[in-house]
Amino acid sequence: MADHCAVTIPLRRIDRIRLYINTARKSLAAIRAETGADYLLNGTLYDMVSFLPVCHLKADGEVFCRPAYSVAGYAWDRGADLSMVTLPDEARQNYIACTPLIVGGRRVEKLTYDPGQGGKRGRSAMGIKDGRLALYCTRDGGTMARTPEQLRDDLLAAGWESAIMLDGGGSSQCDFAGQQVESGRAVHDLILVYLKKEGNTVSETKTVVLDAGHDASNLANRSPDGTYYEHEFCLDMAKRMSAHLRRCGVTVVETRPDGTAVSLAERCAMANAIQDLDLFVSLHSNAAGGSGWSSARGWSAYLYGPGGEREQAAQAILARVREAGTAVRSAPIVYDPSLYVLKHTAAPAVLIEHAFHTNEADVENLKSDVWRAAMAEAQARGIADYLGVAWVSETPQEPAADEELEQAVDALAAAGVIDSPDRWKALEYTDKSVRALLIKMAAKLA
Prior knowledge:
By secondary structure, this protein is an alpha+beta fold. It is 28% helix and 27% strand. The protein has helices at 28-35, 148-157, 230-247, 264-272, 308-324, 340-343, 360-367, 369-387, 403-414, 421-426, 431-445; strands at 4-10, 14-21, 39-42, 46-47, 52-53, 57-59, 62-65, 71-76, 83-87, 94-96, 99-103, 106-107, 124-129, 132-138, 162-165, 174-176, 179-181, 189-195, 207-212, 251-254, 279-286, 299-303, 328-335, 349-356. A 6-stranded antiparallel β-sheet has the order 1-14-13-15-11-12, with helices on one face. The protein has a 6-stranded mixed β-sheet with strand order 20-19-21-24-22-23, with helices on one face. Helix 5 (308-324) links the parallel strand 22 (299-303) and strand 23 (328-335). Helix 3 (230-247) crosses helix 8. The longest helix is centred in the last third of the chain and has 19 residues, at 369-387.
């Protein structure tokens, strides 16, 4: 029997996370056989006499426990949209809490738990690490028994960005795709994870969501002189980047392709509904505080937290942006777990602030067609680098016919100055060709 089991699962690979209410007091093995879940872990604390939960718990829209306090825990509707929030959360279909260990990438210094949860015991925990659901379980009485504080520090050192301690001691039990911590105790509730099922063929096509920030109803995000509006820029940038990526064979989904209003929740839901989404990119322009112009300027990218695929994507885009020669902030990568679309999107997510629309020099760039074209190509190239997709250059357009030149050539041919007018029309005019034409004209005048 294992003393310790741990696993991380990409959120985008999760089909469903279910809270199983074990009213029949079945064993872990029986629940696995009944449900066919890929991963199973004991849930939150419960009263062993009444067999009722004592911490926040909601499953499939039904609230099983709602204490008279708020606490950090996990909430979700289907599964891939899992995030740490303050519970209770009326809007989500499922939530669970117990003892928060790590919130927003920082450890909770003073843990709150009952005396019976203290000491070195078997432990179970769930959390999020680098866009993955993280599950952890150790056997009571085993070599990996930990105090709550030791558990917190172990998970933080392992890179967990958020975590809660679940029920422990003799309740600690799990089955992580065959890795098991066994217990003879039936627990009130369990966390069941179901993976998306793969077909016989796997598509190599990469998929990116481009989220054009804001919409036309937001007129507040603009330059102080009113010549620039963020919603227009973001939609235009999404269109430009989309054209580049599609030319390279990438599937692109735009959250607001026609410019209409789309809520933040709808944008995230759209992304989370895409199986195996490779990248979510939200497009914005930045602003400094106050109502006038400011000195703050430059490009930056925001991430939920450091490391992992999102960091790789942001660094790849940043490298291409620097090549393009635009102004970049002194700290171009910023970590902010409070930003809604970064927090609630399952796939690796990057939010780009192209420049400050409160800076006069940046605004001139933001309004410039030439600058927009350069930035769209640079950022699309960075995304292609991250995805491992070959860059396909634009097909050069045939030069438009010069009607004035053609009329002039026809006139010279009619006057007998030149022959072969079609050849003269097709020439790329150089010093040599102009010299030849002048000599011919001089000979005609002589």
